C-alpha cells in the first residue's frame, strides 16, 4: 500500500461488500486519489445509501451509474468519467462487480449460466474496451516504464473458486455457473495482459479470499484483517491481501 | 482403441469436421457399436449429406436432430435416443459441437461472447444433465468397477486455446470469446468429474490438436495421422491422439 499512488480509480459494484470496502480504503489513504469513481447500478437507491453518505463528506468521490451487462451503460460511464478527468487518464479500473448463484450440476440452467457469465466475464471485457483510451492516457503520462497499479492497471476480481486445480469450496453449493464464469474471467485477464501490455496497462486477476459480505454470507471467514486494512500486497502496490492469480 | 468396446455412443456436431470423423471411426471399428447416434442441427439439410450417405449404408447409425443451445431440443434428443436404446444405457456422450469466432480484444462483442459460450460451454452442461440418466444406466450395467469410456463417459472437446498457461495460437486472431468458453468448459468438465464420479461416469476434456476441418481452416496442421486413425489413445481407451486436459 505504501507504494500505491493513484490519481484516479474506478471501482465497479461499489455500493456494497468488497467494492464499498475498497472505496473506503482509497478515501482513507494518507494521500488519497484525486478522483475515486464508485460505479453501481442505482446510485440514488436505498442500496447505495452508504455510498451517498461517503460522497457528502468526500468531494473526490463521484458516484457513477453503471449496469455492467449493458454496453450502452458502460460507454456512458466511460464518457462521464472522461469528463470528470478532463485531459487526464484513469490509473486503475477495478472490475469488482459480480454475482453468484449456488446452483448445482443438477439444477444449473441456461438462464443462470448466461446471466452470471454476462455479469462476471463479459462485463469486465466490455469495461476494459471502454476504458482502454483513459488507461492508455494514464500510462502515457506516467514517468515509470514498468507496469504497475500506480501507472495504469485493470484488476479483475476473480476467485480460487474459478481455479480448475483447486475448485475452492466445491461443497459450498457447487456454484457451477460462478466457477465457469471465473475460470473464463481468468482467461480473459490473461488475454488482456497479452493485448494491453503494449499500451503500458497491467492486467491481473485477484482472489480476495472468502470475505464477510452479502455474497460471502454467514459461512465466510474473516482471515486476518479486512482487505482494505492490509499494509502489504501481493500484487505490486495494490492494497489487497488476496493471492494474485494472473499473470 | 484396442480396448474400446462401446455399445452406444452419441456425437454432437456430427455432420462435419471432427464430429464426422469420429462417426466414421466408430462405424469402421472391427467391433462397431450397436448404436452410433450422430446429432446435428439439420439432419435433412445439405450440410448433413455425408451423414445421410453413411446412414444409408450403416443401419446402426441414427441421425438425431439437435440444437445444443436449445434446452427443449436437448431434452427431445435424449428422449429419442432413449427410445432407440430400449432399456439400455448410453456409454459415451461426446460433446464435440462448437463454434469459434476470430474476434480480437478490440472487436469482441457481448453478442458473440454470449453465442460462443452458449454453444461451447452451456450446451455441454445441459447435454450432461439430459443424458445423465442414460449414462448412469450404462454404468450400472457394466461389469467393471473402474471408470472408463467403455463403461460410461462424457468427453468434452476442448482446446489448448482454452489453457490459461499455454494460450495456444494467441496470434491466430486472438479469438477471445472462444478461449474464454473453452477455459470455462475445462472448469465445467472438472465439476462434472467431481459430481458424476459417484454415478460411475468418467468425465474428461480433450485437446484434439489443430485439425484440418472447416473450423481449423487453411492454417491448420495435420499432425501425424488423422484422429480417427490413431491406434493409441491418451484417454484410457478413447480413440484420440489429442492430449487429455482433465481431470
Automatic annotation (TrEMBL), chains A, B:
Q: Name one Pfam family in it.
A: adh_short
* InterPro entries listed in its UniProt record: Fungal_SecMetab_SDRs, NAD(P)-bd_dom_sf, SDR_fam
Q: Name one GO cellular component term.
A: cytoplasm
Gene Ontology MF term list: oxidoreductase activity
What family is this protein classified in? Belongs to the short-chain dehydrogenases/reductases (SDR) family.
According to UniProt, the name of this protein is C-factor-like
Amino acid at each position: 500500500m505504501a507504494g500505491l499512488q493513484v490519481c484516479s480509480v474506478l471501482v465497479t459494484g461499489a455500493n456494497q461488500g468488497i467494492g464499498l470496502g475498497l472505496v473506503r480504503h482509497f478515501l482513507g489513504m494518507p494521500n488519497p486519489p484525486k478522483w475515486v469513481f464508485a460505479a453501481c447500478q442505482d446510485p440514488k437507491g436505498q442500496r447505495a445509501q452508504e455510498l451517498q453518505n461517503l460522497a457528502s463528506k468526500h468531494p473526490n468521490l463521484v458516484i457513477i451509474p453503471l449496469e455492467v451487462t449493458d454496453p450502452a451503460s458502460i460507454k456512458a460511464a466511460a464518457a462521464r468519467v472522461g469528463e470528470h478527468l478532463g485531459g487526464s487518464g484513469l490509473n486503475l479500473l477495478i472490475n469488482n462487480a459480480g454475482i453468484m448463484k449456488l446452483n448445482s450440476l443438477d439444477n444449473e440452467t441456461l438462464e443462470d449460466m448466461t446471466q452470471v457469465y454476462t455479469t462476471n466475464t463479459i462485463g469486465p471485457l466490455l469495461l476494459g474496451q471502454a476504458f482502454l483510451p483513459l488507461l492508455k492516457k494514464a500510462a502515457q503520462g506516467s514517468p515509470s516504464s514498468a507496469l504497475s497499479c500506480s501507472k495504469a492497471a485493470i484488476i479483475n476480481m476473480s476467485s480460487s473458486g474459478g481455479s480448475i486445480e483447486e475448485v475452492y469450496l466445491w461443497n459450498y453449493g457447487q456454484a457451477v455457473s460462478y466457477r465457469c464464469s471465473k475460470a473464463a474471467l481468468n482467461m480473459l485477464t490473461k488475454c488482456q495482459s497479452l493485448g494491453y501490455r503494449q499500451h503500458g496497462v497491467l492486467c491481473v486477476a485477484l482472489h480476495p479470499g472468502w470475505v464477510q459480505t452479502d455474497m460471502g454470507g454467514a459461512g465466510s471467514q474473516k482471515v486476518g484483517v479486512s482487505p482494505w486494512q492490509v499494509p502489504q500486497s501481493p500484487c505490486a502496490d495494490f492494497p489487497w491481501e488476496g493471492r494474485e492469480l494472473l499473470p
